[in-house]
Amino acid sequence: MFALRSAKGAHAVDGGFVLPRWLRRPVRMVSRLRIDEINPPPFAATIATAILFSATGLYGGLQGGHLDEVVQATTSRVGFAISDVQIAGNVETSEIDVLQQIGLDGWTSMVGFSASNARERIAQLPWVESATVRKVYPGTVEVSVVERQAYALWQRGQTVSVVEMDGAIIAPYSRSHHAVLPLVIGEGANEIAPEIVSLVEAVPQLQGRVKAFIRVADRRWDLRLDNDVTIQLPEHGYAAAVREVAELDAQYQLFSRAVTAVDMRVPDRITVAMTAEAAEERSDAFEAKLKALKKGARI
């Protein structure tokens, strides 16, 4: 094994030192460079300073545990700040609520923005069933939400809530357009409402006329009509009772008469409660008839 020596260039030091083989070529290349003829590009000093400060900031952020903040600040100022948010699928959920859950501050960077975290926060909104969040570079965030479906209004005491078909509460009742939803009242009414609501909607005489489905003692139903007539249904066999009372109305216009309640709770018997005015008129007519009968008996 031997080492080549060259008189060109200062490879030997102290009169006998020889560079290792792997260093000889780089040293020869450097020795051929003429530093005085190299022209630096414009603003080279500025660029070098910026690189130095960036490297220093990154190092400091890494050492201090603030790397995310450094990345956010750096990338947002070089063209990756979120400048546009596109929201789709929201009807009940306001765009302001979605933006608040995303958590933008005007300088939020696309690089440091977590779509998964934003999706989880948006899904916490009361009307949101699920959400999709997507980053579109250089500065757009796309949000698509799927909302929960309102089925009815549920009242217990003075509290009214919008509920889903399975009875789960969505949000407090606060918007007028929800007033068209069926109103169910009483404990447990929210969980079993679909059966009675679908039954009534299938009966032509009652379609659109029931303004409240009232659960009594969590055992049976009362139907409150739009003219305040109450149909009291039995605990068992209420589907047959609904059809029977609808037939009575079709034949005798029962719901249009001066009645306050139709009691269907006792099998094979229907009790009709009249309004106070109708009851008084009926009493007066009955008394007049008795007087007429007595007068005729004297003759």
Beta-strand share of residues: 15-25%
Largest sheet: 9 strands, mixed
Detail the poorly predicted runs.
1-15
CATH class of the largest domain: Alpha Beta
Would you tell me the structural class of the helices and strands? alpha/beta
Remind me, CATH topology of the largest domain? Rossmann fold
Helices, by number, come to 8
CATH architecture of the largest domain: 3-Layer(aba) Sandwich
Family: Belongs to the FtsQ/DivIB family. FtsQ subfamily.
Protein name: Cell division protein FtsQ
Function: Essential cell division protein.
Subcellular location: Cell inner membrane; Membrane
Annotate the secondary structure layout:
Elements: H1 21-32, H2 44-64, H3 67-80, E1 84-88, H4 95-102, H5 115-122, E2 128-136, E3 140-147, E4 152-156, E5 159-163, E6 169-172, E7 183-185, H6 189-201, E8 210-216, E9 220-225, E10 230-232, H7 238-252, E11 259-263, E12 271-274, H8 276-298
Parallel strand pairs: 1-3, 4-7, 7-8, 10-11
Antiparallel strand pairs: 2-3, 4-5, 5-6, 8-9, 9-10, 11-12
Helix pairs in contact: 2-3, 4-5
Explain what the structure shows.
38% of the residues lie in helices and 21% in strands. It is built from 8 helices and 12 strands. The chain is an alpha/beta fold. A hairpin with a 3-residue loop joins β2 and β3. A 9-stranded mixed β-sheet has the order 6-5-4-7-8-9-10-11-12. The chain folds into 3 domains: 34 residues; 68 residues, Ubiquitin-like (UB roll) (Roll); 128 residues, Rossmann fold. The radius of gyration is 42 Å and the shape is rod-shaped. α2 runs antiparallel to α3. The longest helix has 23 residues. It holds the Pfam family FtsQ_DivIB_C. Keywords: Cell cycle, Cell division, Cell inner membrane, Cell membrane, Membrane, Transmembrane, Transmembrane helix.
